[in-house]
Amino acid sequence: MAKIVAVAGTKGGTGKSTLSHLIAHGAGSLPRPIPAVVVTTDEDDDLLVGDRRYVVVDGRTPDLLAAQLEELLLVEHLLIIIDGAAGRADLDEIVSRLADVLVVPFGPADHEVTRVNKNLAAVPKGIALPNRWPAHQATRARANKLLDRIPKGRRFEFPFPAIPKLDGWFSAARYAELAYDVASPARGLVTEVLARGGIDLHALAGSSSLKR
Fold first, then answer.
1. Which one of 8, 39, 82, 198 has the lowest number of neighbouring Cβ atoms within 10 Å?
2. Is the separation of the CB atoms in 187 and 26 below 8 Å?
3. Which of 207, 205, 160 is nearest to 30 (CA)?
4. pTM, full prediction
5. What is the DSSP letter of 153?
6. Angle (deg, nearest 10), helices 172-196 and 16-28
7. Is the distance from CB of 77 to CB of 35 less than 8 angstroms?
């Protein structure tokens, strides 16, 4: 049966969409690729077009999301990534109820940590993901002190680094240029996410009957 990873939170601009697509790209870049679908739920987002190592489908209303999930969950070998809308109760309830793993990204800032702790309190299965973590040693050391304010069992152990080359990631032409270079960190990301959710990536790998 398909598995669901949801990337959610109550604030825009934390990298939810980028992480959702990186998880899917990582799944499609594994030595034994996992078929992956990103379900777009933000009503302000356009659907991505062009060839990718994963599929993008429309879930921008509760009815569309429910219909997509009803169909996709029947696929045996499939990873579904829900690119969660920020603070939309109509979608958040569906997402939190069905997700096998619910990832809540946050950045290296005091207010981000305050916000993600509130999200974790509201969503028992949520796991905080430190995102866009600085590479500079001194800056990273200061940012790492913020991690102590989040219960260790409710966050990923290793922050996901900032990847400056991701500018234009959502355009078809730029994706083709970046796909190889971004594959390695994306593989690491999907491996960590699935491991944290107790999902066997080898069991998900294989061909899929999904046609879009």
1. 198
2. yes
3. 205
4. 0.92
5. G
6. 80
7. yes
Please, what is the average pLDDT of the chain? 89
Out of 15-29, 100-114, 165-179, 184-198, which region has the weakest mean confidence (pLDDT)? 165-179
| Residue 86 pLDDT level (bands cut at 50, 70, 90) | low
What is residue 174's DSSP assignment?
Answer: H
Residue 209 lies in a domain: no
> Mean pLDDT across the stretch 136-142?
92
Over the stretch 105-135, which tens digit does the pLDDT of each residue have?
Answer: 999 999 999 999 998 998 888 999 999 899 8
Q: Are 108 and 30 contacting, i.e. CB atoms less than 8 angstroms apart? A: no
Comparing 208 with 67, the larger pLDDT belongs to 67
Examine residue 212 and state whether it is found in any structural domain, yes or no: no
The single residue listed with the structure tokens 């579904």 is 80
174 within domain boundaries: yes
Q: Identify the three-state secondary structure at position 161.
A: strand
How far, CA to CA in Å, does 57 sit from each of 44, 81, 88?
A: 14, 10, 19
How crowded is residue 194: how many other Cβ atoms within 10 Å of its Cβ? 24
Range of the domain at 111: 3-204
Number of domains in the chain: 1
For the domain that residue 15 is a member of, what is the CATH number? 3.40.50.300
d(CA 206, CA 20): 20
Backbone angles phi, psi at 101, to 5 degrees: -135, 130
Token pair of 27 as six digits: 């799944």
